[in-house]
Design a protein that fits this description.
Blueprint: H1 4-10, H2 12-19, E1 23-28, H3 40-56, E2 62-73, H4 75-81, E3 86-95, H5 102-105, H6 125-135, E4 139-144, E5 150-157, H7 160-172, E6 184-185
Parallel strand pairs: 1-2
Antiparallel strand pairs: 1-6, 2-3, 3-5, 4-5
Helix pairs in contact: 3-6
The structure holds adenosine-5'-triphosphate (ATP) and magnesium ion (MG).
Amino acid sequence: MFDVNDLIGGMRSLLNLTVGEKIVLSFEPGPGLWPVRTDRSQLEASVLNLVTNARDAMPAGGTLSIASRNQTVGDDLALEFGVQAGEYVVVDVTDTGVGMAPDVAAAIFEPFFTTKRAGSGTGLGLSMVFGFVAQSGGVVRVRTAPGEGRRFRCTFRAPSSAWKRLRSRSRRCPATTPQAKPCWQSRTMKVCCASWNASYVN
Ligand SMILES: Nc1ncnc2c1ncn2[C@@H]1O[C@H](COP(=O)(O)OP(=O)(O)OP(=O)(O)O)[C@@H](O)[C@H]1O
Ligand SMILES: [Mg+2]
């Protein structure tokens, strides 16, 4: 079990190097994030692929934001997402890039689908993200339109029995209680409040 905010926070230097100077990258960690049980290195590879894709979609620069939050998925939403009802951690990667035409958006999760020139992309990044998130009991969705940028939303199962156990342990030991963490923004290092909106589900 681990904290997704810690993992993304630990990738900060790598992500800043990846996006370069023209893109403003920000991270808004959701407060009190539930721990997830999944593969750390695959999650890192997924975040890196989503960020690399966003960078490639913004050759002239733009804004790339990563945000996390807890979400309880009820029966209706579970049916719509094709997942079990329960507790989840949501990670959104949103960019202001060129977007995708509907035929491209329909194919992006297929293995070997790429619009990049030969040698620049294998087309395996998003199929890997899709398989990994599904294997973790979650789902990945994308919302996009040409000229509107896009948001990739990865939703990971956060088994409640495990995080409740962790929470009660940290109550017994206040020194380890998770604190609200500041978010970071490339270069300017702005500190801001994490925010989330419970009705923002799709
Ligand atoms: N943020 C994005 N904005 C616009 N198009 C995107 C974005 N993310 C993915 N795509 C499209 O989806 C395609 C598939 O992405 P995917 O990550 O699977 O492969 P790739 O980036 O082309 O290659 P690889 O990840 O293997 O280096 C991309 O070639 C691109 O056309
Ligand atoms: Mg890619």
